[in-house]
Give the backbone structure.
Amino acid sequence: MTDTLLPNGIKDSGGAGSFFRKGCNPFAATGRSKLQNKRASLNQQIIKQMRMRAGAENLLKATSNNKVKEMVLLELSYVNSNLQLLMGQLEGLNSSVEVYQNTQETASIPLIALGLKETKDIDFSSLFKDIILEHYSEDGNSFEDEIADLMDLRQACRTPSRNEAGVELIAKYSSHLPLMESRFFSPTRQTGIFFTWYDSFTGVPVCQQNLSLEKASILFNMAALYSQIGTRSDRQTIVGLEEAISSFQKAAGILNHLKETFTHTPSYDMSPAMLSMLIRMMLAQAQECLFEKTALPGIRNQFYSLMKMAQEAAKVSEIYDQVHQSMIQTPIKDNVPFFWSTMSQVKTNHYRSMAHYFVASALLDHQLGLRDDEDQQEKTLSQVYDRLPEGRSPLDILRRKDERERIGKAHIRRAILGHEEALRIYSLCHHLNKLEVLQDILRASLQRSLNKCTENEDEEEFADYTEAPDIISKTEHKAEMEVPPTTKVKVTDFFQRLGPLSVFSAKQRWTAPRTIQLHPEDRDLSFTLKGESPVQVVSLDPLCPAAADGLKEGDYIVAVDDTDCKWMGVSDVMRLLKDVNEEGIDIQVVSIMDNNPPMPTKSATFCGNLPKTYSMICLAYDDEDKSPKSRKVTKKSSFLNFGLKNRLKSASTLSLPTADHSGALPWNKPCPTFPSSSSYNNDSALY
């Protein structure tokens, strides 16, 4: 998929003239586009089934007819079965990692990429035109091109190319969002624009009228795009590995920024617990690429090199084990694809076995010679082990050939067991079985360990059950989170013709433009100007004709005759006023009105057709920590009471997947992992 250059009215400082980059062709017959189209289709089917279930549950509560109840219960069982099937298909899409891999790569373990969140199209046209007319007293139709450019940019962000140009495209839209918020989203009124995004793991739609969800989802997609760039990098070259490392570290940095900035995002895939797991996974994949970068030139068959690689492999194994432990915690385990947790477990065993193989090779293939530095080898070996078997010291193992072989064979046996366990876990996941390259790598590693064991096998030797000690993980290059500079890029406000944001914003209120006719006497305007743009009238003579005509102290001059001067400074405006003839000159001014608005309206969030507020999310999440006094305060708000009332009536459309099998559902079936009415009261239903 390639970028398409389409004309529009934006000036691009990057030298593209009057063109700017658009997204990929959504109808391109590529694996990634097909996958994203399937995701969009599944999201629509999930919405349909959720609406059917909500209607059936409401009918079940409202009717007292036993025959109707039986029919409704039967319908509910079908709907929940369909939801389970759709969830399985969505998990399959999240498990399709082969689509994101480098097509020319056949010798590297596949990596996991995040799929882009899907959203609905939004038509800003009519609502923005109304706001421009009502709030800014401008002709909304004159801003049709600017509104179209904004809508095109948002649409392009749904299908970004998998490179830095795609990241820059998303970053541009992300930088436009604060400007759009300042222009059109007042804290005291709702615009009527609903931003809908679908959870990337559950497919549950979340809808809000403010821009918080939009900003958070765009950041999530930027991190997802970096993860896709990392997986498609050619890991058989140093340049490709460096690109992959940087991409995964940037993905982790953006996810961490998202976690710290948007702490109460209602979408489950952006909850703090899920983001923490995704950050660990990105850093684990970056660490894996760092290990591959170290091993790519070749591992020297020397004692120190083998011990170093053993500790590097142990580090990768340790990080993947942490990822796996976070994936199997409630409530994450109910929504993370089984493929992901299985892959992390396979890599944990695989790299741990590699560490034991390297230590075994160092001990079995390299005996302590006269020219070897005994003290240095002892120091190296002591740093590899956390503890040694009783009665043994690093120096004993190095000096005594039998001890060296005994510990080396113990390591090779543990390596074989680890590789066999990795293959066993691999066989448990049918999605993982599709990755033949992974199976080939696991089998080759096992065979290498078996060959090493055969080479050092002694038929006359009694069976030795010495257990190999654990290997201390250590790395010279630790993967760190990195926030890319492209997170915020400098952009030109689409609606800059409305005037400087310091004055002409949605939170400010001012009068309609008034026309004042100036008749200077002896070139005296009877007032002075100050400020940047727009300029402000000060030191006004209250007895001058302009004051009598309606000019006030503190007014902003927005036009002189037919010249718009919202962006002009004092010198530019004075230049327009200095050549006034006897007929005078007309100026247009506005007056800032007092801003004492009532308490701002809370923004409702719609999750599966049920409205809720951020306050409700916080209360549900921290219910045990809240004092009775704090809960009494929230009951005073009629809007919150309305939300709580709806929660009791039809909470099944709000709650997110959980593993609760309480059997409290009226149709006496196991509680599905998809949203259900019994899961709302659990903290896991939200985070």
Summary: The CA atoms of residues 239 and 249 lie 15 Å apart. Residues 1-21, 598-603, 609-687 have pLDDT under 50 and may be disordered. Residues 31-62 form the longest helix (32 residues). The chain is about 50% helix and 5% strand.
